[in-house]
């Protein structure tokens, strides 16, 4: 069952922004509470209930404003989530936003995404593939592996992907932490074009 926007739970006001909580249905048997801030022109998801399980769809708008970013640690430790559908309005995934989401198996990145923060998907031991919208100007994926659009830099190898891996011949660099905790990876074949390993 896909997520339906539920009820607004509470509003915590300060001088610059409002911190809001939204109850979303995750599966037929569990719910996820999302915390978010409102800048007046856009929404940033700042946190989630770490006990949430199942499939989660983040809406493109909340209270009529676009959801444009996930803050640092927004879904940190949500190990019960199995998939997250990102909104088409999303431009930024903050540092360690999905750190420790070991139940995630795949992630689809929208065309609007321009920033993936440091260690955004570290600790996602069940993650086997990234899919990137073909219209994204900065990122692409090949066989579930995340690259820059020009396919010259390997950015992130999914931690749950197993077996042997041969990098494409177009690759000249491997990003910092690209193979972090890839315990199921049995061998890596590097092309002669490689000039930098992060």
Protein described:
With 198 residues, the protein is mostly beta strands. 0% of the residues lie in helices and 43% in strands. A hairpin with a 2-residue loop joins strand 6 (61-62) and strand 7 (65-70). The protein is globular and about 50 Å long.
Strand content: 35-45%
Contiguous helical run count: 0
How far apart are the termini? Answer: 41 Å
Spatial extent as radius of gyration? 17 Å
Counting helices, strands and paired strands, the structural category is mainly beta
Q: In sequence order, what are the helices and strands, one letter per element? A: EEEEEEEEEEEEEEEEEEE
Beta-strand segment tally: 19
Unreliable runs, pLDDT <50, ≥5 residues? Answer: 1-31
How helix-rich are the residues, as a percent range?
under 10%
Shape: globular
The major beta sheet can be summarized as: 8 strands, mixed
Average pLDDT reading = 85
Keywords:
mainly beta; about 200 residues; single chain
Helices and strands, with pairings:
Layout (H helix, E strand, L loop, with lengths): L4 E9 L4 E8 L5 E8 L4 E6 L5 E4 L3 E2 L2 E6 L10 E5 L6 E2 L12 E4 L5 E2 L12 E4 L6 E4 L2 E4 L4 E4 L6 E4 L6 E2 L10 E5 L6 E2 L1
Parallel strand pairs: 4-7, 5-8, 7-9, 8-10, 9-11, 10-12, 15-17, 16-18, 17-19
Antiparallel strand pairs: 1-2, 2-3, 3-4, 6-7, 13-14, 14-15
